[in-house]
Write the structure tokens for this entry.
Amino acid sequence: MADKLRTQQQLEALQSRYVGTGHADTTKFEWVSNIHRDSYASYIGHPPLLSYISLGLGECRERVRGIMLERMVRPVGNPPEVAD
Amino acid sequence: MAATSSMFMYSLTIQPPSSITQTILGQFAGSKEQQILTASGSRLTIHRPDPAQGKIATILSQDLFGIIRTLAAFRLAGSNKDYIIIGSDSGRITIIEYVPSQNRFNRLHLETFGKSGIRRVIPGQYLAVDPKGRACLIASVEKNKLVYVLNRDAQAELTISSPLEAHKAQTLVFALVGLDVGYENPVFAALEVDYTECDQDSTGQAFDELEKHLVYYELDLGLNHVVRKWSDPVDRTATMLFQVPGGADGPSGVLVCGLDNITYRHSNQDPFRVAIPRRRGATENPERKRFIIAGVMHKMRGAFFFLLQSEDGDMFKVTLEMVEDEAGQPTGEVKKLKIKYFDTVPIATNLCILKSGFLFVASETGNHHFYQFEKLGDDDEEAEFDSDSFPVDPTEQYEAIYFHPRGAENVNLVESIDSMNPQLDCKVANLTEEDAPQIYSICGSGARSSFRMLKHGLEVNDIVDSELPYVPSAVWTTKITRGDEYDAYIVLSFNNGTLVLSIGETVEEVTDTGFLSSAPTLAVQQLGEDALIQVHPKGIRHIRADRRVNEWPAPQHRSIVAATTNERQVAVALSSGEIVYFEMDQDGSLAEYDEKREMSGTVTCLSLGEVPEGRVRSQFLAVGCDDSTVRILSLDPDSTLENKSVQALTSAPSALAVMAMADSTSGGSTLYLHIGLYSGVYLRTVLDEVTGELSDTRTRFLGPKLVKLFRVSVKGQASVLALSSRSWLGYSDPQTKGFMLTPLDYVGLEYASNFSSEQCPEGMVGIEGKSLRIFSIDKLGNSLLQQSIPLTYTPRKFVRHPEQPLFYTIEAENNTLSPATKQRLLNDSNLTNGDAAELPPEDFGYPRAQGHWASCIHIIDPVSAKAVLQRIDLEDNEVAVSLAAVSFSSQDDETFLVVGTGKDIVVAPRSFTAGFIYVYRFLEDGKELEFIHKTKIEEPPQALLGFQGRLLAGVGNELRIYDLGLKQLLRKCQAQVVPNLVVGLQTQGSRIIVSDVQESVVYVVYKFQENRLIPFVDDVIARWTTCSTMVDYETVAGGDKFGNIWLLRCPQKASEEADEDGSGAHLIHERQYLQGAPNRVSLMCHFFAQDVPTSIQKTQLVAGGRDVLVWTGLQGTLGIFVPFVGREDVDFFQTLEQHLRSEDAPLAGRDHLIYRGYYAPVKGMIDGDLCERYALLPNDKKQMIAGELDRSVREIERKISDMRTRVAY
């Protein structure tokens, strides 16, 4: 039992430290939002990629950065309704 | 995946990226002077602005082998030197300083805080420092914030604390600045959104009500703890923060910039808000709101102002007005915020205002600009708006404000710094029929885009070009006395005489100089204190200061064939093969050495070195004979004219030059013997100063003509000018001190000499045919010369005419009004006065409109006209997406230009209403295009290619073959070959390489008899292909959107089977492997280049060089991959790389191997940029590595430099 508890604690520590670490009850919505947020963070973080996207969109880099950050708030729409 | 491979390539950068990710200002050298520090890709560059000339010079540029994301400068209290903090992808915070005495960066601290790579929750995206240099905050996009306390210890060394956490989960950071609070506890301001509730609420109400907060984080220096001190909702659209001066300078706080609003916020002040003025004009949408995208705050003597730039490029001057007390003195309370139009400059990633009155604009695309302030926008007629007219709540109604954009009044452009960012496509071709090909590339965006021609060469500043009556054979310049600063005479030798010109206000002939004018001259020299020497075939004329002439006649029946001189020595070679040596004695007369030395063959050339400082003579005489040898003779009094060493050559030497030059190996200067051969080969060997031994010979082919060598001085350093079919300059690179040999962008000269006059202190004089030319070389750093032709819109792709030196570009601009719509708006009758004037788009950009496209096709002549020949605009919101020059066999192999377009394209998520293929006929050798017809298809064709006399088009995920019909194109064959979208096509024989936007490449074979396209090999990894090329029949090189470059090879067996005769039945019925093609490619090489590759091509870069892969990157990078021939070299460079990784670990703390294997492990690649850092190591480390490799330092340096010079620049 103690082993199980420790594993549980380690997992929780990981989850709090590294955002997006999954668990047995991860929903599809959580998983997909997480992937999208990771992708947007990567687009913003890699300067050539941000330039590439901004060139395609015809907007300036700072605007594209703002748009991407804004999308990170709700990347895949509203969460599904939870049936009680 | 094994990191080793049967194929190895050596990666080199020819031109580093020119885009700027971030710029900061600081006094990095510890002096009063401000420097500009820029981050471009993985490079950190420090520039020195020269306020007197209004120029910017690069001092130091270093590759960090990591992605630089943010930079910040800070200064400890009481110090006058700025330190640099780098936020990179290493998961570490790096603090470095610039050491001006050694011209290098020195790392002071490197603290690890997280995983490497660019991740959502690993800090490195944002970096803010306390203005007093007491702390810094490094943050990630989400959640994590770390505060480091900066201090100094008893030894006055900088210290850094362990990090203090200020994390907040599920919180996105939009902007971060350090607040100016004087000497109170450091405070950092962040724009944050907490999405916790929005993630739980399925109704979407939480999202709609979500607020953005301005949060203050206070670092309590006493408790060593960070607290969230204050948080207040701000405008939901805000994305930027600017620091407002505090303490004694101002009210402190921040400017929060969002959509159409700039708000002043601080915890103890009322908010003040102004709108962002909008452009007025016929083509401007009055409802369009703007964002602030860049800005800068500038403090000066008790006042401060902001220059904030909108997304159109308009800069606004924003100031704060304070409440005044009874005495009329400003208090710390803000009264209002004011804004007015300042000027328009290119859209910037960063603006920097220098104390010397300059503005540096690091442009987002295109050239960077350096402006000088004329005035600060005070007392002009520009309307000023203040916060009294605007409600604090941005959701409330207010009246929009407008201004008329106008030409720059406040700033004046003084320098435009070439930048190829973004580089969309590139082709290497030899259109000018020179010996080396040129690089043609399309760069930039919007109206600032350009077509650029790059050529390897040094820029030459032509000063005088005058015609002479006859063709001279040689030219010299000379001073009259040793103390003279400038040259006094130009001596020209003709076939039968000599002409002396005096240099002064004008250049005119003089006759009373004592020079013999009736014979040609072999050498001219200023000797001793005040005498002159003229060597002519019949003797040596020694002209003393009082015009007395001593003549040494050549022995009877013999003449002088070669001569060399320096200020104390003269050596001549006689037609009999004897060498006569003279030295100046105490009283200034020339004394002949008793014995003559007889050489085995005819002497072709001689060289004496300069007399070293503090010595009386040069130690060695180099003698070149027609038996293809060079001998070094001693001039030591004990062993005069004795043989020291011999060097055998491949051809007879035509010129020699002994000279001391700066050397990277020894760190000081080394004596070199430069040898030019009749075959056009140039050699450089090291001449041992003690023994006279020759070692470390490096060879370079200069051109088909014999080589002549001249000692010249460029930028204060001794350089060698080598003349063959082109003129080359050999010099040591200002930064690395490595030897460089670069052609001059100039006429081919016959003879040259150093030239120094009052107007031109450091020049050269040369002769070319009948003309005498005086020129100088002002810049040594940049050896790639650029010429550019302006284009209209962002160029997307270009092709070359199959025979003529012409290029065709397609250009497109998103969210921009097309010329037709613009004209309609301008012709609108209810225009107010002045609105109809159209602004030059190069400065002001095009009028924007959501969902509109402007697109055109250009014909460019880069060789003779150097201009755009014809422009064809596309109408109906169509956009050109691809083009190709295709020869149709149904039309007697006539070549047509085929352009693919799309209508109403939305880039993301991808949508469109239709696609078209236009066919144009070339008229007048391609100088004009005639429209033939257009064919409607379902999707915009992203790739087009001529294939076996027909057109191959990638339409969506289908590959189609079209033939040319009378009314439209006729579809002949089609097949679905890739999963997503065809973006590129390559072909050889009947094999087609199709690149997919997401799924790497697919090999397709076309079976003519059956008229079928059959995919037979695909890839196992998703590669978001941007460009690809066939290296050979089996191998493809390509790049992807994430900055990787790879080489893939199809299995030999599959390749042979695909080309088997007969029907493709066996291919079609072959069993699919894991739902893909029957075979898979294997990865040969993989490399992370950081920059997004936009083109890759297999070509030669230098005359006589091997084929290399040339790739170009979006940020303006030019790079090459050189294949290794032998395994031995690979092993050598692999070991060298390994040593350099540990001995010269990247500055920002990124592991080099992991960096180059960012997405997939490096395979089959050696990083030449890392290897070239060997030359910059301190001597002891060089020795150590050389010892480990069992080679000498020179040998290693030669191997490294050979890798580059054999194939590239």
About this structure: The interface with chain B takes residues 16, 18-20, 33, 37-38, 41-42, 44-49, 51-52, 54-63, 65-66, 69, 72-74, 78-82 of chain A (CB under 8 Å).
